Amino acid sequence: MGYLIDSFVAAIGLIFTFDREVQFAVWTSLYTSSCSIAFAALIGIPSGLMLGTNRFRGRRLIITLLNTLMALPTVVVGLVLFGLFSRQGPLGSLGLLFTPWAMIAGQTVLAAPIVANYVLAAVSGSDPRIMDTVYTLGASNVQAAVQLMKEIRFGVMAAVIAGFGRVIAEVGVAMMLGGNIRGTTRTMTTAIALETSKGEFAFGLSLGIVLLCVALLVNLFLNLLQQR
């Protein structure tokens, strides 16, 4: 018990003394996660809206595929993208492997299906008369989509936050595509895995505390928006 208490005290000390290693890992996690969720939103929100408001051949198959992609193992995504970005791969000339952009690409692949599915669920649960009403009033497809987005805005926010939670806590893709390089691609999760295996439990615990605080703040932000 004393070991845990001492480690916790040391972890708090690392946080409040602004340890450089802790700061960099936190910044890298927030930067890559924010970029990837922005790209995932650009892909997932329109996809969810299209699937929710249109009926076409193959729609059920696409929805089934999206549901499958939500449970896609991170190491599989990392493996496929590693092959694409490696020197022998078709995108090797871009030099993306073991850079933050490779991590962002992998995290976008993980988050986009989650965002699309949550938006699809929000559209499916909305009042079907919304679209009929706006079209009756002469709205264009874009105007109708904007109005529907306003009606399901909390569902869209939940979709983005769920995707953000998925990527900021992710390890496999960050490790395989980023390489956990100190000063370049080390995130909170990869640093926790590495430092704990080295016996630096207090360091790993400090990052774990920060990670929990980030998750708490994001959810508090969502609750605040819903109350307003």
Write a structural description.
There is one protein chain. By secondary structure, the chain is mostly helical. It has one domain: MetI-like (MetI-like fold), CATH 1.10.3720. The protein is built from 11 helices and no strands. The protein is globular, with a radius of gyration of 20 Å.
Shape: globular
Distance between the termini: 43 Å
Task: Let me know the CATH homologous superfamily.
Answer: MetI-like
Structural class: mainly alpha
Over the alpha carbons, how many angstroms does the gyration radius reach? 20 Å
Determine the CATH topology.
MetI-like fold
- The percentage helix is over 70%
Low-confidence stretches: none
Major beta-sheet overview: none
H-E string: HHHHHHHHHHH
- Overall CATH class: Mainly Alpha
Secondary structure tally: strands: 0
The chain-level mean pLDDT equals: 86
In CATH, the architecture is Orthogonal Bundle
Task: Estimate the strand proportion.
Answer: under 5%
Write the layout of secondary structure elements.
Elements: H1 2-16, H2 20-53, H3 59-70, H4 74-85, H5 100-124, H6 129-136, H7 141-151, H8 153-168, H9 172-178, H10 188-197, H11 201-227
Helix pairs in contact: 1-11, 2-5, 2-8, 3-5, 4-5, 4-9, 5-8, 5-9, 6-7, 8-11, 10-11
